[in-house]
TrEMBL record:
Alphabetical list of InterPro entries matching this protein: Aminotransferase_I/II_large (IPR004839), Class-II_PLP-Dep_Aminotrans (IPR051798), PyrdxlP-dep_Trfase (IPR015424), PyrdxlP-dep_Trfase_major (IPR015421), PyrdxlP-dep_Trfase_small (IPR015422)
Domain Aminotransferase class I/classII large: 17-348
Superkingdom classification of source: Bacteria
UniProt protein name: cysteine-S-conjugate beta-lyase
Species assigned in the record: Thermus composti
GO MF annotations, alphabetized: cysteine-S-conjugate beta-lyase activity
């Protein structure tokens, strides 16, 4: 086990007696090919890169993600959400999204003085599903859908049938879809299929290396899509150059990071299954995620994250941050070492017994 860094957001935000299973980065060290690429780049040229970024990396992104179109680099996927809202809607208009959802989706809509048109995922016996009928009812009131696939926080990896149905609704109602596919490499039993495969002319796909390769501290993202959409989108991006170290790291990850990612996914799957078994034994509402390293857990405790922080000294993401009505839910990041996870689950179990 690598000792946690107190100069990180994850481990430095709370007192030392708190186990942090909240913000979405991993406790594991970065792959050696990435570290090597960073060392080599740091010893070389660190001046301005071309504004359009590394052409080899652009080509790799299209190839590895099965996408077509133009590529624009951006400082991060969250920046892309804000730019999309500004580019494709006007103040006062509605923006569609599925809840529960990663909080910056809601922030991008609200801070842009737009209206959140929330289409909740359906919680079925088999897991979370898209409410396609609900989406159809709301689609007339918006021009933009902010989509997340694999979904954060539920971990759903949407099926080909769901994506085809969503694409049909988007075409019918002239919706532009901005699809955050940041967690695309982090799937388990079923591979990720990009939404753009079914809706290429109306989809902007947002990508980044931060989650799969644990590079959140080297922020970089990319938007991929048809030129007309991408040109409108780019007008709302900050006037910056893509980070040369982040590009070097991402390229190394795509070229040489597969073995590291495969081993990491094996550890994440073991942790996922451990959390799922624990949640079932404790009588909690939970569906094992099909992608991501995030567990979305339903309790019977109001303001559950605040309760667990106080009573278990475990930091989890509050469910209420992912949309109204989710305060009894928590998001647990299981991308940590087994001994850390076991101690956290032990503490949470004791706190649940006292609730």
């Amino acid at each position: 086990m690598i000792p946690p860094r107190k100069d990180s957001l994850k481990w430095g935000t709370y007192p030392e007696d708190v186990l942090p299973l909240w913000v979405a980065d991993m406790d594991f060290p970065v792959a050696e090919p990435i570290r090597k690429a960073l060392r080599e780049r740091a010893e070389g040229f660190l001046g301005y890169p071309p504004r359009e970024g590394d052409p080899e990396l652009r080509a790799l992104l299209l190839e590895r993600h099965g996408l077509e179109g133009e590529v624009a680099f951006l400082p991060g996927v969250v920046v892309g959400l804000f730019a999309a809202v500004a580019a494709f809607t006007a103040p006062g208009q509605g923006v569609l999204t599925q809840v529960p959802i990663y909080p910056p989706f809601l922030a991008a809509i609200r801070e842009g003085r737009r209206t959140v048109l929330a289409n909740p995922l359906r919680e079925t016996e088999e897991g979370y599903r898209l409410d396609l009928a609900g989406l159809e009812r709301l689609a007339f009131a918006s021009r933009l859908l902010l989509f997340c696939h694999p979904q954060n926080p539920t971990g759903r990896v949407f099926t080909e049938e769901e994506l085809e149905a969503l694409a049909h609704i988007a075409r019918k109602h002239d919706l532009i879809v901005v699809s955050d596919e940041l967690h695309a490499p982090l799937t388990y039993e079923r591979p990720h299929i990009p939404l753009a495969r079914f809706l290429p002319e109306r989809t902007l796909t947002l990508l980044g290396p931060g989650k799969a390769y644990n590079l959140a501290g080297l922020p970089l993202g990319a938007a991929v899509g048809p030129k007309p959409l991408l040109e409108a989108f780019k007008r709302h991006l900050p006037h910056t150059f893509p980070n040369v170290l982040a590009m070097a790291a991402w390229k190394a990850a795509l070229l040489e990071g597969d073995a590291w990612l495969k081993a990491t996914l094996a550890q994440l799957k073991a942790n996922r299954d451990r959390v799922a078994g624990w949640a079932k034994a404790m009588g909690l509402g939970h569906f094992p995620p099909e992608g991501t390293y995030l567990a979305w857990i339903r309790t019977e405790i109001p303001k559950a994250a605040a309760y667990f922080l106080k009573e278990a000294r475990v930091a989890l993401n509050p469910g209420e941050n992912f949309g109204p009505g989710y305060d009894r839910y928590v998001r647990l990041n299981f991308a940590t070492y087994p001994e850390v996870l076991e101690e956290a689950l032990r503490r949470l179990s004791e706190a649940l017994k006292r609730a």
